[in-house]
């Protein structure tokens, strides 16, 4: 039996989370953009698979930053 590796727990992988739809709407309104204008991530990406993300979902990525302390990025999941 093989043990499954949890990539989200790796020290070099920043925190990823699926954004609830109400937060997606707030995000898009705040930046005055449409969903299709977000940077993309494929459903075949290891992290997207682990989060069980489907096309149309938005993933929030929170990274530690030496200059900003914390940097937040968003990705639209595509096929």
TrEMBL record:
It is found in: Cytoplasm. It is an enzyme of class 2 (transferase). GO terms for molecular function: DNA binding; DNA-directed RNA polymerase activity. Pfam families: RNA_pol_Rpb5_C. The keyword Cytoplasm applies. GO terms for biological process: transcription by RNA polymerase II; transcription elongation by RNA polymerase I; tRNA transcription by RNA polymerase III. Keywords: Cytoplasm, DNA-directed RNA polymerase, Nucleotidyltransferase, Transcription, Transferase. It catalyses: RNA(n) + a ribonucleoside 5'-triphosphate = RNA(n+1) + diphosphate. Residues 5-77 form the RNA polymerase subunit H/Rpb5 C-terminal domain. It comes from the Archaea. Its EC number is 2.7.7.6. Belongs to the archaeal Rpo5/eukaryotic RPB5 RNA polymerase subunit family. Part of the RNA polymerase complex. This is DNA-directed RNA polymerase subunit Rpo5. It comes from Methanooceanicella nereidis. The lineage of its organism: Archaea, Methanobacteriati, Methanobacteriota, Stenosarchaea group, Methanomicrobia. The gene is rpoH.
